């Protein structure tokens, strides 16, 4: 049905050929001039890799443990809404592919399959007892009862972490959708996690409330209402990262929403060193935005991310070939990552250190935390 896909970009091309252009715009689009959308990918292209040689990296391992859960690769499926738009099985197909690959999937609050069903699909696709962790993303809701009900649904489904998206006090990313008149899910699809939580508005794209009313107090409240690890998605300012730690947040998903919220914010990769310095090892940082290659993963991990997330590539792969498409995508990225490790002389993710990346020209490793040349003596010198 589908041809060989050699790169993430092949999935995008195939998906574009297959999808309604309105849905292509929904997926590809970003806020306003889409400056941040472009900047995310460009930041990875700009950074250079400086590999080590002769490090005996015949056996390589890219497994990662996050909040006690193990994944076969440090690439998470970032939360994306509306998978049924591109595949009839929607998030269930995505979850089967993620589970088969041993990848952590973050189920969107705006999923078109209920989180309990997504979890069941993941369990069914994994080796017995081997289902990789499933996390749940949510937007705080003005009615605290709705927020709590969502948390309970995620817990009951067996999700092992909550990801609270805090970059959406209002919904961004509107212009392409407005131009296209894309405001509603088509008939037969709806945000299944919200069903029965409130009346009316079902199937409407805005049935999820986004509100600028929230403050750190609400994060504290959520923190107290669950034992699950809580991550914040969309913290960009280092001062907010410090506040997150102070409010008992367990991790950050450093994200600019794929350039879909505030336009002209910096690419996430460029913010990573500052945020790593701000949290100072107290909580892990996952980064998303613009990851398209194994070398992109290497760069993010070298600069201190524990793992990365992918958003659009998952949508493209699901559109291209359903469950199998997402499986192929994850296999392809795993393969690229493994190759990049080998070429960098790394045997594992711990070998990915800041000295492996450089800014062009005369640069040393980027970011304020890194002293030029500081890592060159790692593992002992020859003298
Ligand atoms: C079609 C689409 C839907 C998204 N839906 C959500 C969502 O429901 N919740 C959320 O927190 N982020 C959402 N995001 C943002 C992603 O989680 C992620 O931050 C972003 O896509 C990463 O950038 P990338 O697409 O370059 O990989 C969405 C992104 C896209 C492209
Ligand atoms: O499109 C998005 O980026 C997004 O986050 C979203 C959230 C809820 C419903 C639809 C899309």
From TrEMBL:
<dbReference type="GO" id="GO:0010181">
    <property type="term" value="F:FMN binding"/>
</dbReference>
<feature type="binding site">
    <location>
        <position position="137"/>
    </location>
    <ligand>
        <name>FMN</name>
    </ligand>
</feature>
<feature type="binding site">
    <location>
        <position position="233"/>
    </location>
    <ligand>
        <name>FMN</name>
    </ligand>
</feature>
<feature type="active site" description="Proton acceptor">
    <location>
        <position position="257"/>
    </location>
</feature>
<keyword id="KW-0285">Flavoprotein</keyword>
<feature type="region of interest" description="Disordered">
    <location>
        <begin position="361"/>
        <end position="383"/>
    </location>
</feature>
<dbReference type="InterPro" id="IPR037396">
    <property type="entry name" value="FMN_HAD"/>
</dbReference>
<dbReference type="Pfam" id="PF01070">
    <property type="entry name" value="FMN_dh"/>
</dbReference>
<feature type="binding site">
    <location>
        <position position="108"/>
    </location>
    <ligand>
        <name>FMN</name>
    </ligand>
</feature>
<feature type="binding site">
    <location>
        <position position="139"/>
    </location>
    <ligand>
        <name>glyoxylate</name>
    </ligand>
</feature>
<feature type="binding site">
    <location>
        <begin position="288"/>
        <end position="292"/>
    </location>
    <ligand>
        <name>FMN</name>
    </ligand>
</feature>
<dbReference type="InterPro" id="IPR013785">
    <property type="entry name" value="Aldolase_TIM"/>
</dbReference>
<dbReference type="InterPro" id="IPR000262">
    <property type="entry name" value="FMN-dep_DH"/>
</dbReference>
<feature type="binding site">
    <location>
        <position position="255"/>
    </location>
    <ligand>
        <name>FMN</name>
    </ligand>
</feature>
<protein>
    <submittedName>
        <fullName>Alpha-hydroxy-acid oxidizing enzyme</fullName>
    </submittedName>
</protein>
<feature type="binding site">
    <location>
        <begin position="79"/>
        <end position="81"/>
    </location>
    <ligand>
        <name>FMN</name>
    </ligand>
</feature>
<feature type="binding site">
    <location>
        <position position="257"/>
    </location>
    <ligand>
        <name>glyoxylate</name>
    </ligand>
</feature>
<dbReference type="GO" id="GO:0016614">
    <property type="term" value="F:oxidoreductase activity, acting on CH-OH group of donors"/>
</dbReference>
<keyword id="KW-0560">Oxidoreductase</keyword>
<keyword id="KW-0288">FMN</keyword>
<feature type="domain" description="FMN hydroxy acid dehydrogenase">
    <location>
        <begin position="1"/>
        <end position="362"/>
    </location>
</feature>
<feature type="binding site">
    <location>
        <begin position="311"/>
        <end position="312"/>
    </location>
    <ligand>
        <name>FMN</name>
    </ligand>
</feature>
<feature type="binding site">
    <location>
        <position position="260"/>
    </location>
    <ligand>
        <name>glyoxylate</name>
    </ligand>
</feature>
<comment type="similarity">
    <text>Belongs to the FMN-dependent alpha-hydroxy acid dehydrogenase family.</text>
</comment>
<feature type="binding site">
    <location>
        <position position="165"/>
    </location>
    <ligand>
        <name>FMN</name>
    </ligand>
</feature>
<dbReference type="InterPro" id="IPR008259">
    <property type="entry name" value="FMN_hydac_DH_AS"/>
</dbReference>
<dbReference type="InterPro" id="IPR012133">
    <property type="entry name" value="Alpha-hydoxy_acid_DH_FMN"/>
</dbReference>
């Amino acid at each position: 049905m589908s041809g060989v896909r050699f790169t993430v970009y092949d999935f995008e091309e195939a998906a574009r050929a297959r999808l309604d252009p309105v849905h292509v715009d929904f997926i590809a689009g970003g806020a306003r001039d889409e400056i941040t959308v472009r900047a995310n990918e460009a930041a990875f292209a700009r950074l250079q890799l400086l590999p080590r040689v002769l490090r005996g990296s015949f056996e390589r391992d890219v497994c990662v443990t996050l909040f006690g859960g193990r994944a076969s690769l440090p690439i998470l499926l970032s939360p994306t809404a509306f998978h049924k738009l591109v595949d009839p099985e929607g998030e269930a197909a995505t979850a089967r592919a993620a589970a088969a690959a041993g990848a952590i999937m973050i189920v969107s609050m705006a999923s078109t399959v209920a989180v309990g069903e997504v979890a069941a699909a993941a369990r069914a696709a994994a080796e017995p007892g081997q289902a990789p962790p499933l996390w749940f993303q949510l937007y705080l809701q003005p009615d605290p009862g709705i927020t709590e009900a969502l948390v309970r649904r995620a817990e009951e489904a067996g999700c092992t972490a909550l990801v609270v998206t805090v970059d959406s006090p209002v919904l961004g990313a509107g212009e392409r959708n407005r131009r296209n008149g894309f405001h509603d899910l088509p008939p037969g699809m709806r945000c299944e996690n919200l069903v029965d939580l409130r009346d009316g508005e079902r199937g409407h794209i805005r049935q999820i409330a986004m509100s600028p009313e929230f403050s750190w107090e609400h994060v504290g409240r959520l923190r107290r209402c669950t034992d699950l690890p809580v991550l914040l998605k969309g913290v960009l300012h280092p001062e907010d990262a410090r506040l997150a730690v102070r409010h008992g947040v367990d991790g950050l998903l450093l994200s600019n929403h794929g350039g879909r919220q505030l336009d002209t914010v910096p690419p996430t990769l460029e913010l990573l060193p500052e945020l790593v310095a701000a949290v100072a090892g107290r909580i892990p940082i996952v980064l998303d935005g613009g990851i398209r290659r194994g070398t992109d993963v290497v760069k993010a991990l070298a600069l201190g991310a524990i793992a990365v997330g992918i958003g659009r590539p998952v949508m493209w792969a699901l559109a291209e070939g359903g469950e199998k498409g997402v499986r192929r995508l994850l296999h392809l990225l795993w393969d690229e990552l493994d190759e990049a490790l080998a070429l960098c002389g790394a045997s594992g993710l711990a070998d990915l250190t800041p000295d492996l990346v450089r800014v062009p020209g005369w640069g040393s490793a980027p970011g304020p935390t890194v002293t030029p040349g500081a890592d060159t003596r790692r593992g002992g010198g020859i003298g």
